[in-house]
Specification:
- By secondary structure, this protein is mainly alpha-helical.
- The chain has a domain at 31-99.
- The chain contains three helices and no strands.
- The termini are far apart.
- The radius of gyration is 17 Å and the shape is elongated.
- It has helices at 22-27, 30-56, 63-96.
- Residues 1-7 have low confidence and may be disordered.
- Helix content is 68%, strand content 0%.
């Protein structure tokens, strides 16, 4: 696995990660990568909400799957917030530069 931002994705255990090809990697913009990351975080949070709701409704008694989904969603959200903080810090650093 290369050391790109794609290496930071958090995927459920049943989803296989396939690294993007070099051509696709050079064509995607930073904005596209951020959009995809936010979409993945939202997808994990939706899945966690569904599992918790299903558990509370009595459709399933699998507390472990619900807790794992909640933890995955929480961890992916925390990672997204840290990336956001680093982007804001980089922007502020560039803003302070004198040309």
């Amino acid at each position: 696995m290369n050391n790109s931002i794609a290496g930071l994705r958090i995927l459920p255990a049943d989803v296989q990660y396939t690294p993007p090809s070099r051509a696709a990697e050079s064509e995607s913009s930073f904005s596209d990568m951020l959009d995809e990351a936010v979409f993945n975080v939202d997808r994990l949070q939706t899945a966690a909400n569904q599992k918790v709701g299903s558990m509370l409704a009595g459709n399933t008694a699998d507390v472990h799957d619900a807790m794992i989904a909640v933890q995955q969603a929480d961890l992916s959200f925390q990672l997204m917030m840290q990336v956001r903080n680093k982007v804001v810090q980089a922007y502020q650093e560039i803003e302070r530069m004198q040309f």
